[in-house]
Amino acid sequence: MRLVVLYTLIAGPALAQPLLQAELVRRYDAAEASQGVAADATALYAVGNSEIGRYDRATGRKTGVWSGDPRVYPHLNSCVAIGGELVCASSNYPATPMISTVEVFDPEKLIHLRSIHLGHQAGSLTWMLRHDGAWWGGFANYDGHGGEPGRDHTATALVRFDDDWKVTARWSFPAGVLDRLAPRSASGGVWGDDGLLYLSGHDRAEIYAMRVPRDGSVLTHVATIASPIEGQAIALDPADPRLMFGVSRRMRQVVAVRLPVLESLK
Fold this sequence. Notes:
Blueprint: E1 5-6, E2 19-21, E3 23-29, E4 36-39, E5 43-47, E6 51-56, E7 62-67, E8 75-82, E9 85-91, E10 100-106, E11 111-119, E12 124-131, E13 134-140, E14 157-161, E15 167-172, H1 175-181, E16 188-191, E17 197-200, E18 206-211, E19 220-226, E20 235-236, E21 243-248, E22 253-258
């Protein structure tokens, strides 16, 4: 795949890495597409605060919906298809102190199966993934609304858990990426087949490729990719790891893009 490098930076704090460009593939109308999207081989799952809509990937037709009580599920942040289940990150945003849960759904019946209560953590859980024999979660922190006293967006963290949901490691974000996220935080994350962690913010139409260092506690910023995905949670095609799905809250759409290959930057 041809690697495109843009030397004109988009508005905001300067980037420490070249700005690359994702290729738009397709848009799907999805009324629930406000918080993010999950993907499996045949369906897309548009995630809203208290709802999940399932859409056929080939036709874009809506094939099911789950609606929860907002008092019980005030803020679903993302979902991911793992082992025949939808594993969703959820929080009590904008309430404080920040309390997070993992909510698990049956993707075929679109029914809630169980909750995993994480309690008060490093922030507000925005995404949760399975990778390399462990659970990995992104915890958001905010300036002002929805934030806790004494912490702002610079406290955004990546946390690794064992199978008993005990914290085994934690990483912070580099200053250059935090500047792009301010005053909000990281909203989505996926592991690429290249070993990099791809992260999305709250609003900017950018994807940040990061490396988890072998030593040290700060993620390494590898590249920034401009994209029609406008922040929020993201997903990768299980069969095509360069095909990414995200959302446009403004247009209530799921957006499919093709990521550039970053081999030359690794």
